[in-house]
């Protein structure tokens, strides 16, 4: 397994446009200008974690940037083209820059996020933050 570096940094909210995904669910896509392609992405959760799986074959781990700010996950990258000096007869494999943004359904523990890139899939595991219970003294 290859580890991917997670960078936690603040995002500029006004530079992104939000579009609702999957009718009524709490996941959102972030679009910031035109991009060459958008890799297929699965987002699912259990009681303890949120998992994200991105199909991005042909990339290297250093070609991803993953940012978490509160409940916004942003995955950015760039897949190089195969060749610029050729005439395509069919072209279905996207290349160039991409940006995927997901509004998370609950807060996560950002320093415990795990990421790996293996067999063309970027896999993220985001542990959910457990609520703190406060007892009232009598």
Instruction: Report the sheet with the most strands, covering strand number, pairing sense and barrel closure.
Output: 5 strands, antiparallel
CATH class label: Mainly Beta
Number of strands: 11
What is the CATH third-level topology name? Immunoglobulin-like
Describe the structure.
This protein is mainly β and 138 residues long. It has one domain (2-80, 94-127): Immunoglobulin-like (Sandwich), CATH 2.60.40.790. 0% of the residues lie in helices and 42% in strands. It has strands at residues 2-3, 6-7, 17-20, 28-31, 41-45, 49-55, 64-69, 72-79, 96-103, 114-118, 121-127. A hairpin with a 3-residue loop joins β5 (41-45) and β6. The radius of gyration is 17 Å and the shape is elongated.
Short structural summary:
The protein has no helices and eleven strands.
Topology:
Blueprint (H helix, E strand, L loop, with lengths): L1 E2 L2 E2 L9 E4 L7 E4 L9 E5 L3 E7 L8 E6 L2 E8 L16 E8 L10 E5 L2 E7 L11
Parallel strand pairs: 2-7
Antiparallel strand pairs: 1-10, 3-4, 5-6, 6-11, 7-8, 8-9, 10-11
Offer a few descriptive terms:
four-stranded mixed beta sheet; disordered N terminus; 11 strands; elongated; 138 residues; mainly beta
């Amino acid at each position: 397994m290859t580890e991917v570096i997670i960078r936690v940094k603040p995002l500029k909210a006004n530079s992104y446009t939000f579009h609702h995904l999957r009718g009524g669910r709490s996941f959102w896509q972030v679009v910031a200008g035109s991009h060459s392609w958008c890799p297929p992405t699965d987002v699912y959760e259990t009681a303890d974690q949120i998992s994200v799986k991105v199909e991005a074959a042909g990339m290297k781990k250093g070609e991803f940037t993953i940012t978490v700010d509160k409940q916004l996950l942003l995955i950015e990258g760039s897949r190089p083209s195969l060749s610029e000096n050729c005439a395509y007869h069919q072209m279905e494999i996207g290349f160039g820059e991409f940006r995927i943004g997901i509004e998370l359904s609950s807060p996560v523990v950002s320093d415990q996020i795990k990421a790996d890139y293996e067999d063309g899939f970027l896999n993220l595991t985001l542990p959910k933050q457990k609520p703190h219970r406060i007892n009232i003294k009598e």
